[in-house]
Please model this.
Amino acid sequence: EINAVLDAMDAMRVSLAASLDARWSAERAQREQVAALAHDLKTPLTVLHANADFVAEELAVGEGLDENARAELAAAAHDIACGTEQLDGYVHALIEASRGGETARKMPVRPAALYQKIAAEAESVARAHGIELAGAIDPAAASVREVPLDAASLARAAANLVSNAVEHARSRVEITCTMVDGSLSISVADDGAG
Model:
């Protein structure tokens, strides 16, 4: 009977250790997710700040804005609107992560649509820093039908790459989307020192 009690206690100890390990892993993953989302807030905030300053300066000078200046102001206002939409998504993801909810969701997405989303967000970051943005999607990637992807997480990861590239670029950042051995590949390159 003593051996049975000891075996039961040992089994309970192993079970408790496994339960605690699982709990600690889940909490660590949640903290990492919240930290990653908080880091991701930097990029749209930078774009919003730069464009809000630009719009304010241009409007202060004000009168006699030519067609080019109006187009730049319209682009800056558009970038501010897109940045606030990004921030809203990140805040929603932070709330879900803080509640222990699942923030990653795979949905059917066309790689071409994902690339266009990434390129549109990258354009505002590049414009805010005065960096030229180039990009291309190869025909193989453009022709792929919907595949299950966590588009929000992939777009966030690409936005981080673009933000880093823009910070270190001399004058140009390039985004490419290709198919490599049946997998979607999105790469970001800059002409900086490396």
Summary: Helices lie at 2-40, 42-61, 67-98, 111-129, 139-142, 151-168. The two ends are 69 Å apart (CA to CA). The mean pLDDT is 82. The longest strand covers residues 172-180.
